[in-house]
Specification:
The protein is of the alpha+beta class and 171 residues long. The chain is built from 4 helices and 6 strands; from the N terminus they run αββααββαββ. The longest helix has 19 residues, at 73-91.
Amino acid sequence: RRPATPVRPAPHTQEELDDGSQCPSREHGGAVLISLKRSRLFQMAVPAHPSCAARVRRMVAAHLTLWGLPALVDDAVLATDELFTNAVRHASTDPADTVSLLLECSERELRVTLADPSPALPRPRAVDGAAESGRGLSIVAALADDWGTDPPDPGAVGKKVWFSLAVREPT
């Protein structure tokens, strides 16, 4: 496996997100990110390695905060972390594998999609109360308004696993 690169703090302004300065270049084992100015679309690809989970969590939290969606941060970060962990644990077989994260937010819905190189679809399973793993999809299902899978983009391999959260008006 590729050694972990130092994780930088999450960007705090739209300008830091737009210029990509908070993300190391791909040549150095870092993430590739796309953040379109003033849009509510964010995409990044990171090595399929457990050490990258913190970076993924920070980027989700930072974007939702910048988009004015603090009420969704906790659920979105936890569900994203579960899907990223599943992708690393069950879908990554090559040290060069990556997991792509896509955040898309409309006025009504946040959709988070993770794409990995394995065509094997995730399956929720019954878990013994003493088991230390196996609850990821159950957690996603409990937190999300909806979740599912999609085929990969044309010419790509693997699958996409996604969940959505309703964007609610502040009360």
